[in-house]
Design brief:
Layout (H helix, E strand, L loop, with lengths): L1 H20 L6 H11 L3 H4 L2 H20 L2
Helix pairs in contact: 1-4
């Protein structure tokens, strides 16, 4: 149950981050975020599923960090 709540909260945090930054994949913040998370050659390094798992884990981490867990 805790993991489900962390996942829902993580998705919320990711959506909220996208809204606050005016999500456009080519803006400077998102380019920087992608390069620091996955490297400059992010498209060949890991599979799409692995990338989404990493992004979701980042969202969960933000959620837990804000909740003090």
């Amino acid at each position: 149950m805790v993991r489900l709540m962390d996942t829902i909260g993580g998705l919320w945090e990711l959506v909220w981050l996208a809204v606050r930054t005016g999500y456009k994949p080519q803006n400077a913040y998102w380019k920087w975020r992608r390069e620091t998370a996955f490297g400059t050659d992010s498209l060949t390094g890991i599979s799409r599923i692995e990338r989404w798992r990493a992004i979701l884990e980042f969202g969960r981490w933000i959620y837990r960090l804000k909740r003090g867990r």
